[in-house]
Protein: Putative RDD family membrane protein YckC
Amino acid sequence: MSDTMSYDALPDPATDPAFYDGVVLKRLLAWVVDTLLISVIAVVIASLPLFLLWFIFPAVFLVVSLIYRIGTIKAYSATPGMRLFNIELRTYQGSPLDGGEATLHTIGYLVASAFFIPQIISLLMMMLGERGQGLHDMFVGVVAINSPGRV
Structure:
């Protein structure tokens, strides 16, 4: 996590707008892809032990979501949905997220998503901010950008 919250190591939206162009829409599309993948995985897991885990399906979905998001963000600094749309998460220092940052980002995302007001605030922040950051991004010190090799 960032100590200074300075954006110096990241592309400036004013001078390098290509790094931020379309990122909010791409994040939405990536979220749809990731939610579908998580849902399929959770359905398969819940169905394996004679469908007994269907009684606790929300918990199964939550655990799958945590493992999926933390694991893929730690490994690639992006979920499979983000990778599909060529976006990735970077710290304020410009580096990929490590395991702790991936965990904090995922927990922040899940908490913001669980409640209506933080979810709306986060969406508004993404749509109106020059870097398209949500609450959970600001909390951890993360920015979503178009993958540098694809700009």
In short: The two ends are 26 Å apart (CA to CA). The chain has one domain: 17-150.
